[in-house]
Every structure is written in C-alpha cells, then in structure tokens.
Amino acid sequence: xxxxxxxxxxxxxLSGGGALGIAHLGVLHDLEQKSLMPxxxxxTSMGGIIAACIxxxxxxxEIYQEIQTFASVTKWIKFSxxxxxxxxNTKITSIFNRLFGKKKMAxxxxxxKLIATNLLNGHKRVFSAKDDIYIKDAILATMAIPGVFNExxxxxxxxxxxxxxxxxxxxxAIHTHILAVDVLGENAFEKAMPDNxxxxxxxxxxxEKSMRLLIYNQSRTHIKHSNKKxxxxxxxxKEHTTFSFHKYKEIRALxxxxx
Length: 259
What we know:
Elements lengths: L9 E5 L8 H11 L6 E5 L1 H10 L4 H8 L10 E2 L7 E2 L1 H11 L11 E7 L5 E4 L7 H8 L9 E3 L2 E5 L15 E5 L17 H26 L4 E5 L14 H7 L5
Parallel strand pairs: 1-2, 1-9, 2-5, 9-10
Antiparallel strand pairs: 3-4, 5-6, 5-8, 7-8
Helix pairs in contact: 1-3, 1-7, 4-5
C-alpha cells in the first residue's frame, strides 16, 4: 500500500542486500526529483552505507559516483589469510575514512540509525546519535557479513551484519509514515527451482535463494507486526547476485519509477 509522503515527515528505511542495494539509488533519484527528503534514515548493511551518505548531505549523483568505485572489486577488496573472514577490511576502511572522516553518529543533517548484530549474544544493536561513535565504525559493523568481512569491535563488543536480526529496519522508525525499500523482498527470488546443467551451480543457487527466502520472511514478519503506515517498495532484483557490483547501472535502474 502507498501512503502520501508529500505532507508528512517520513522515515526512509533501506534494506541490506550487497550489490542489490544499489537499487536504493534509483529510489533516491526519484525522491530528489519529487523534492521529497526523509526526516529520518534507517539502514542495514549496504542500505546503511547509502543511508549514511544521505545523512551527511551527499546527493544521489555523488553517492552513485562513489558506488562506481565498487564496480572494480580490486579497489576495495583485499583477501585475508587469517581471522574469520575472507576479506581484509583495510581498503574499504580507507574509503569510509575518506567519506566520513571524524564525523560521529550525531554529526548528520538527517537523524541516522544503523543496525548491527552483536555476534556474541545475537542481540540487535541500533547505532544512533545517542552513541558517541564514528559513523565509519557503525558502517563497518552493519556491513560485516560473517565469513566475508571482518567482524568489527566497538567499545569492546563484537559486531556483524545487521541482516542477522533485522534486514529491513521498520521497527526502528520513529515516524508514523515509513518509506521502506527492500531489495531482498518478494521480487528478489525466482518462483522456480534451479535447473542448471552443472550440479554445483544448482547448489550455489539454492544456497543464495535460501538466504533470500530467510531474510524475506524475517522482514515480512516485522512488517506484519508494525502499526506504522508503511509504503513498501520491492525492486525486481532476482536476476542479479549480491556481488554483482559491476552491474551498478542496471541495478540502480531497478529502483526507479517505483514511487
């Protein structure tokens, strides 16, 4: 259901989804065209990165230019041969240092909330202006996919990706009206079983589909139990993988024209 946003302060909630999260930029493009800006931002993982960029005043064009950096994985991925993850965060940390510098969670033009998961007790952790931490640290926590990116330590606590507890953070919105963009929603998976020639391809496709179904059902439950007026946008991302950063043009376009 779509609710009017023009005359109402609203929270923009952006889901996680790796490269699929680039579709958030298409929605942001349309919001800018309609002169609609959120009164609050909530993000998880890739949605958290984009939400943080919006919160410090970056335009969709500026964010898109930065996203193009991710098209070449060698610019931000450094493989790790120790620890619990395959990617060393050194390169991506330098990107966040450049973008956010010493800005803290309270140093934003629009209130920002980023969702992470405490990897020791499994509890959800929502970083906001109440937390005296750098934005870049909250981002490194919300995007730390276990086994892929290094877990991130903040004030002695160990954090991983927010998708483990709430990939679409509608529960964290303070405003009655919510515009939620879920790139791992109903349109993120095929309504058929894998049918590739090689069994290995079928197994990998089944694994990714299972993860998408798990996250989709998690988000659907959160929406079902919310008493807010949620406008839900679900870009058709099923034809792309969560690591298809080289498809940034096509994925961005998936978020356009949904408002």
